[in-house]
Amino acid sequence: MKAAQLTGWRNPLEIVDLPDPRPGKGGVVLRVLACGVCRSDWHAWVGADPDVILPHVPGHEFCGEVVAVGPGVTRWTPGDRVIAPFILACGGCPDCAAGNQTICAHQQVPGFTIPGAFAELIAVPHADHNLTALPEAIAPALAAGLGCRVTTAWHALTGRAALRAGEWLAVFGGGGVGTAALLLGRALGARVVVVDVVPAKLDYARSLGADAVVNAADTDAAEAVREITGGGADLAVEALGIETNVVGALNSLRKLGRMVMVGMPAGDHVSMRLPMDAVYSGQLAFFGTRGMPAWRYPSLLSLIEGGLVDLSPLVTRQIRLSDATRELAAFDAPAPPGVAVITDFTT
């Protein structure tokens, strides 16, 4: 199979021929239909993730068609179109049994701890627990965009911080996760203000229905959000993983507000100085979140199938496998609006 392989930090990915993967017990092999290029892949590319051992195939936002089934698989047969979360759980531990697959102690993460989906084929372990049927009405490029950014935003809003209709949602960071949070928040009946430092991303957010936007490059973002919302947001989403955003998000909340940390902190942002006085005096709730359990996919897919949310504007670029390096390098600076998805794996 063809794959894009990382052989050195920040090096261009090499298009190589690798042996086709084979399904293990309980696992399947998928022909990858589409795979997103995510900021988390950039963390792997620059060497900021200690789980990545070179040489390595990145890619964790994928959907595909089952082409081979291992012993013990009962739910899937060749030809099935499926989507997977980026955290592949074991399905048998106490956390999995409780529905908390994202904290499974035996989890495997494509593109990080196991080979990823910047390739024509990918092996998925514990397939009966990790895969969900992909409705025919949802195109592969959009489905791949769901794999990390949309599902993480959905779980943050509905599974962790319980966004309610009529509330004010402040989204700090207008990238893929932030755009997903905007679209989903609007679908859930919230009013949404998006904060970023890139005018093009703010214009994009406004075009997608944001009630307000704030350019944090030329104003105090937290103060601006409090003014727009009449006292502070009910819920703030941090969508980039940097200290400035976290501080701004906490300070933008009204009393008894909630904040959910969606962005992945790495490098200099692993440790942060936070305004704990605001947390204390405002009696704020601070949630962490990472990924989404597979069993929660049907609620999100039903929302999309039913026409209650249009996520198609999220995917702005369909690219070739050989273009992946260019998209990764774009994360060195503020990346262009929208999500890039690999849909051509032959070149």
> Which homologous superfamily in CATH is the superfamily of the largest domain?
Medium-chain alcohol dehydrogenases, catalytic domain
Count of the separate structural domains: 2
The count of strands amounts to 15
Order of helices and strands: EEEHEEHEHEHEHEHEHEHEHEHEHE
CATH topology of the largest domain: Quinone Oxidoreductase, Chain A, domain 1
Which structural class should the secondary elements be placed in?
alpha/beta
Query: How far apart are the termini?
Result: 12 Å
Quick one: biggest sheet? 7 strands, mixed
Helix content: 25-40%
What's the mean pLDDT score?
A: 94
| Portion in beta strands | 15-25%
General shape: globular
Low-confidence stretches: none
Helix segment count? 11
Q: Kindly provide the name of the CATH class of the largest domain.
A: Alpha Beta
From the alpha-carbon coordinates, what is the Rg to the nearest angstrom? 20 Å
CATH architecture of the largest domain: Alpha-Beta Complex
Question: Quick gist of this model?
Answer:
By secondary structure, this protein is an alpha/beta fold. It is 28% helix and 24% strand.
Describe the 3D structure.
Helices cover 28% and strands 24% of the residues. The chain has 347 residues and is an alpha/beta fold. It has 2 domains: 2-149 and 292-344, Alpha-Beta Complex (Quinone Oxidoreductase, Chain A, domain 1), CATH 3.90.180; 153-288, NAD(P)-binding Rossmann-like Domain (Rossmann fold), CATH 3.40.50.720. The strands form 3 sheets. Strands 3, 4, 5, 6, 7, 14 and 15 form a 7-stranded mixed beta sheet that branches. Strands 10-9-8-11-12-13 form a 6-stranded parallel beta sheet, with helices on both faces. A two-stranded antiparallel ribbon has the order 1-2.
